[in-house]
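From the pipeline queue, job 12 of 40. The input is one protein chain; the requested action is below.

Action: predict structure.
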Amino acid sequence: MGEYKKIGKNARNVMLVSSMIFSVISTAVLLVVWLIFGEDFPRIVNIILLLTGAVIWVISLIEPFIRYERYRYRFTEEEIDIKEGFLFVERNVVPIERLHKISMLSGPLDRIFGLSKVIVTTAGGDVTIRFLDEKKAEEIVESLKKRINAYAVAQKEKEERNTKEGRTGNDEV
């Protein structure tokens, strides 16, 4: 369970569709600005608007494929490790012992493509494992719940042993 895992092909489709939605909205905004103010803009501003629209579309077509190839996650006995990014690769490592809450979320596009997100909450914030097949997300949630429960039981047993031996939680073991 310690190897990095890739996400399914449907993830790339979700990334592509969401990127296209962003491009359509951005293009519509640029078009509205041009229709309202275009005649008053100097020629260079109109060229910049056109180039901006072109760049948005080029990036939107490239970005999902790069993000898809870079997205990885893994679980070890001690941690959850997630790598993702387009221009900059971000890595989130969460120790299993720090987990407080686990939840699943599916947005409209996720549901269309049969995907879900697993959101892991720690004292320091949330970490999200995105683009998981629904079945895989459910397996991960159950596995993490078991690990959290096992850790909680071990901590409780340790506290009980310390109490019986007359130690407090701050004493060195």
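Job complete. The chain has two domains: 9-69, 78-164.
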